[in-house]
Amino acid sequence: MKKFKFKIKGQDYDVEILKFDEDIAHIDVNGTTYDVEVQRTYKQPKTPKLVRQEVQARRQDSKIKKTITKTAGHDVKIPLPGNIMQVFVKNGDTVKLGDKLVMYEAMKMENIVVAEKDGVIQNLSVQPGDTVLQEAKIMEIA
Prior knowledge:
Layout: E1 2-8, E2 11-21, E3 24-29, E4 32-37, E5 74-77, E6 82-87, E7 94-95, E8 100-106, E9 109-114, E10 119-122, E11 131-132, E12 137-141
Antiparallel strand pairs: 1-2, 2-3, 3-4, 5-12, 6-8, 6-11, 7-10, 8-9, 10-12
């Protein structure tokens, strides 16, 4: 296993550890084998050991149910602050996905807000010339 050289009171010793059996080491010193009892001291670690509670398995018959809540409609919001230049719809109009709703100017560029779903326009709250803030709700699509 491991070989060591010791010098004790001027005498040289060649020591080889042959094997360990629990607290007994079998060693060879200058050709003679010895069984030596080893005293071991165990240090307590400085870091406390984290003990967690065992996780209980879920029952197989439990299922997660999805609940769907109906809302009044889909809010249409302005992504950047700017000025409304043109409104293409009015309250009660039916729109389809991708239809133009409003054109507004933001950062010196003309931008168009389009419908994100099919529905009917409700609660239209802007007209040409109005100034709007970022994420301002301008209408609903129900």
